[in-house]
Design a protein that fits this description.
Largest sheet: 11 strands, antiparallel
Strand content: 35-45%
Number of helices: 5
Number of domains: 1
Number of strands: 11
Distance between the termini: 27 Å
Amino acid sequence: MTTAKTPVVDRVARLRTLAEVDRQTAQDAAWTWLRRLGTGLPGHDAEAQLAQLFAAGSPADVDGQTEGMLVGWTTPDADLDTAGRVIHTVARTTTTRLGLMPWLGKYFDQQARRGTNTVTRTAVVLTRLIAPTYRFRRASDHWQGFDMLTHVEPSVISPEVDVLVLDYETIGTNPWPINHIRDEAVEIVPGVLLGAKLWHQNNGYRQLAYWAAKS
């Protein structure tokens, strides 16, 4: 696939060239860019740039622990179902208005094509309110849970792009609403991922947010 030339695509190309000689500086620049775009969410300009950035990515190639960042919540689609709107509203209120960030990052086992999420005590408490029987695994000063299967296939929101799919639905161990979530991840520069969080409803997937991770 040939990606149309835009300022976003040109900037990604420059960062990837920089990464060949100074990986850390390229990572820091990409991370700062994503954080800045997140301040514009939800909003048309930031969402348009993030969509271009996502389309310029390649399937995330990642193994081991990553540090996560919620980039921001997107504008709900007009046909987002009721459950999706509730999840979007509650999650946005918790993370943006209340300032609580229960998610720390993701752990990937590339060989096994599996992974899990790294979360805080807050996530454990919040999950017990809707899924009291679900159990996280303690790991040092954090918890692991919401397991996923990983594979590469075309994106459902940007079909011309191959992405790393983080599948929470078919693994069979996740509680509602996690078992209706699909994450898609692309690599912007080596070690920095941009992810799209999607909600599965009867007529397909609708986007809820962007997130990022770095290794």
